[in-house]
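Cross-posted from the bioinformatics board.
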Amino acid sequence: MEEQIAELVAKVAELEAASGGAKVTNTMFAETFYYLTIPLMIIIHAGFLAYEMGASRLKNVLSSGVKNILAFAFMIPTFYFFGWWIYWGFPTGLTFSEGPAGISGAAYASSIALGWGDSAQYMGPNIADQASGVFFGAFALFAATTASIMSGAVIERIQTVGFIILAVVLGSFAWVVAAAWGWHADGWLVTKFGVHDFGAAGLVHAVAGFFALGVLINLGPRIGKFNADGSANHIAGHNMPLTVTGLMLIIVGFWGFLMACVIVPGEAWSWFGDKPSTIYGTPITLSALSFNILMAVAGGIIGAWLFTRDPFWMMSGALAGIISTASGLDIYYPALAFLIAFSAGIILKPCADWLERRGIDDAVGAVTVHGTIGLYGVVMLGIWGSGFPALQGAAGEVATINLMGQIIGAVVFFLLGYVPGYVVSYILKMFGMLRIREGAELAGMDLVKVPANGYPEWGTDAATTPAE
Amino acid sequence: MFPYDEASWSGVDGAMFMGWGGALPGITTFLAVVVCIAVLVIGQRSETEKAKKFDK
């Protein structure tokens, strides 16, 4: 009997040791999973950098790059200083109270997301916390993505410091509020209206796109963009292949972006012990993402090719394909994702032309690709995904996805982008901090901003031609 | 459009996409095939038209 008990005790000890090892392995996997999304998302910035520089004329190529690099650099510390706090503090609205999941509100945010006091233990190296840093990193990169989206729209005439202020307002405040409200288990848009935006079509892309629109209205078009009769000219960038390659890099980076939207299982902060979930606690797999992202990219490219035949719009169509399906990448059927993305690729260029005819000079089509298509994607999910529980649980216990909820979400995302973009750029304009002086714009911003030449042995810019 | 009788995630242990168990996957797959073929046909026609303009 004693021998059997001793054998049993030894087996229990062995099992405990094995279980401890599995737990360590899972924790390391979870940490590595998010850690790897960070360099993947930095590829988005490599893409935006190439895309913007290619879309700039020779005289502005380096200043466009400097602006984009600085946006990234300022986004990280400002997101550390206050953006991360906003995400955890704001979900229940302006009451800053704790939500039903118990992971929100001012008190909660102050306990985990401030860089001083007790909270600081979660904002720096800590052997007992293998999650906070990688989550912060992934979210900071989402923030930097929003700034890059706006960055392309305003090239060739914006002041550097004015742009950085706008980037900080967008990346460390506006989109973060949208994420707290619509991309958090306690977010009021989710709990009250069933808003579902798995891949951030609205809360990242639409917010950033319409923030850019607010800025563009105050910034005005580049000199030479519009003629006296109001017709538009096409201002060719200096390097279309660089722009198209940049767009392809953005697509590569979006695999990391969407991967970072998945909650891995088996950790104290996970929704499940045995299966991955979305940020809302609904099930998802990386296989689901793989099916749907690929089909969406393909659909967007094919749709854009049909009427444009232009590699710039085709690769923008790839982006539009992902964005138009991003809200429901967890639950779309791949062929349906393809068809939605195809439709987004078709409407892309006409939407951009419509905006241009209203006097908006969006140099890279960011308002359309990210703003308009982002809202299109949010609403599409309301049409196709109605009835799916928006959170972990059953219909009745939790809100379900519905068309009206998605429309309300789309309106909120539009306002969270457009209003701060317009107001802050208006204030910057009043203080003379928005647009570069005319002489400098004509001479080229590289001469003013950058002590180097992009292509010292090359000639002049391409001729300006009618847009349509 | 939830693919199970009870709209609850707790009962889902398999396919979880829109239309599972119904006609939607088949219909959308068919339409996607049609789109691909139609785009290729249109593309071929228009490219040929443009190329003809350069005939001597």
